[in-house]
Amino acid sequence: MMYPDALPAILGDSTYSSISDLIATLFTGTTMLVLVLIFSCSLLILLGGYVYHSLALQRLANKFGNEHSWFAWIPFLNRYLLLEIAGLNPLLVLLFIAPVLLTPFTVIPILNFFVLIVNAFAGIAIVVITTIAYMNLCKKKKYDKMLGLISLIEIGRFVLIGMLAWGKDKK
User: Structure pTM?
Assistant: First the structure.
């Protein structure tokens, strides 16, 4: 199937007779290899971060004598464990689940705005509660409580939880 005369002007002087030929050429060989490499590296980084965070949280739970340290490996339960060892009400984990449960309701036009507002406030509450949890953990390990503010930066959270899990208690 040939396209209107505008197609050669858009594509330049090429031998593509259709859009599908152009797409097939773009997504062959090198392009697909680069996309697969980017996806693979991203997946490895995400999995590595998850394993590191779970190991550190499990170690921290063991240090505080928590019998459910294996919760560190299960999504949402790891947040429950973090809140529990930080001395906060573990039922606050429901705030972490709320955005996941409410998101399907965004397809209903009348509820869309309200669900988005609730999700925004829940997101802010999640950040605040997580930061308070890390601040309490710092206090329990006899570090300065304000050190928990580092958890507001994602890479800082990894450094902080590693320091809390494998570092020595301050005296």
Answer: 0.77
